[in-house]
Write a structure and sequence with these properties.
The protein is built from 9 helices and no strands. By secondary structure, it is mostly helical. Helix 4 packs across helix 6 (about 95-100).
Length: about 190
């Protein structure tokens, strides 16, 4: 049993039960370990939560950075970034659900360690919107506010999106992008 397998199982358990209801025993049981053996890999449930949040953000930052590094107009980068983000929420649904719903469960010392990575992720979105404003593709707007609004719309999909639903994550992304870009494009 390795750390990644434990984290995958922990994400499933925490998504199903919620952080506060999930126990170290539940996580150990999910990976067929004794609770004492789980402590060999992680010192606490808080450490597991922080590792899950970091893992989710690392995936999202890497994928988003790949889009942002392309030589494309800001509106196309935004469209692709939204697709990558919603695709990641779909592909890593347990992990991203923990990221979006359980981050408030971090104790202050762990929260302090988490916030810089979260801020880096949000800054990528703000910078993308600022790039669009500076290039004249987007109208003058507050990039921080626009990024928060955009993330809020996309983040909420974890509460209602179903892989077997009417629309795929890609179709939802296209519809969200059309909605957002029609509001951001200079007229």
């Amino acid at each position: 049993m390795n750390r990644d397998q434990i984290l995958k199982a922990a994400a499933q358990v925490i998504r199903q039960k919620g952080y506060h209801a999930a126990s170290m025993q539940d996580i150990a049981k999910a990976v067929n370990l004794q609770k004492a053996s789980l402590y060999h890999h992680f010192s606490s449930k808080q450490e597991i939560l922080l590792a899950l949040l970091d893992q989710a953000l690392d995936i999202l930052i890497e994928r988003l950075s790949g889009v942002l590094a392309q030589e494309l107009p800001a509106d196309e980068k935004l469209r692709q970034a939204m697709g990558v983000y919603l695709g990641s929420l779909d592909e890593h649904s347990d992990l991203t659900s923990v990221l979006l719903l359980e981050h408030r469960s971090l104790d202050p010392e762990y929260r302090d360690r988490h916030i810089p990575r979260r801020d880096r992720f949000e800054r990528l979105w703000r910078d993308l919107i600022q790039e669009g404003v500076e290039s004249g593709v987007f109208h003058e707007t507050d990039p921080a506010m626009a990024a928060r609004a955009l993330l809020g719309v996309m983040n909420w999909t974890i509460t209602w999106y179903r892989p077997d639903g009417l629309f795929s994550s890609g179709q939802i992304s296209d519809r969200f992008a059309a909605l957002v870009l029609d509001g951001l494009r200079r007229r």
